[in-house]
Amino acid sequence: MRSYVKAERLAGRVSWSFLFVILLGMCLRVSAKEIKMVTVDWAPYYSQSLPQKGVISEIVDEAFKRVGHTTQLEFLPWERAMRSALRGDYDVLMGAYYSEMREVKLEYSDPMYEVEVGIIARKDLEVTHYKKLEDLTSYRFGIGLGWVNSPEFDTAHFLRKEAVSRPILNLRKMEKRHIDMTVMSTKVFEYELAQSELEGKLETVVLQPLLAKNPLYVCVPRIHPKSHSIIADFNRGLRLLKKDGSYAKILKKHGFDTEH
């Protein structure tokens, strides 16, 4: 009789342990999520043509993986990507600068990486420095459609600005003398020039001082029902990447400065 009672109790404990494992697995599956992300093709930071879709794409993907999520990334022109994210078509807008206007509709993550933004001018203008933006009023600027550069530059309505959808278009306009200067990430400028037919033909200089140093963020539209938890999960994953050295390894693998 005692043997039977012991066996029954043991079976009960095994059953409850088995049930706990099943429930735990269900909870993990419910909490795990495929994160649908959207961004623009912006090499060398992220692009369909780069290994692992670029350094920032790999950082974001690994950060979400650390907290149990998978990711799916699509590339669209920037304004379409922004509109689609704000409509709720995607969970995440990957790789955005901060602006007060955007923060009204987007929740921001912790910063991922800092981007140097400069004014690039044709070398034959013989301009290398400026003290204030008012010094540049006689020049024509090419900018990105829907892009944030710096609060000072973006609100400088006294400057003549023409917007295009892709950085390379501004370089081509500079080569044809349709514009005098453009504003973009210095690394994006270097990459676009090296990959284009303009290398060796378009001589330029990055004006000093730099226009801005802008952190890149993961953003989630505030209308998303899980915006807070997605941002919290990403931030936690990013901290884990930095803590165990994986963040620095990813930067180094892609040839990026680990000091940012």
TrEMBL record:
Protein name in UniProt: Polar amino acid transport system substrate-binding protein
Keyword Signal: yes
Transmembrane domains' residue ranges: none
Entry keyword annotation includes Signal: yes
Organism: Rubritalea squalenifaciens DSM 18772
Gene3D superfamilies (alphabetical): Periplasmic binding protein-like II
UniProt superkingdom: Bacteria
InterPro entries in the cross-refs: Solute-binding_3/MltF_N
Keywords assigned by UniProt, alphabetized: Signal
Stretches assigned to the Solute-binding protein family 3/N-terminal domain: 42-254
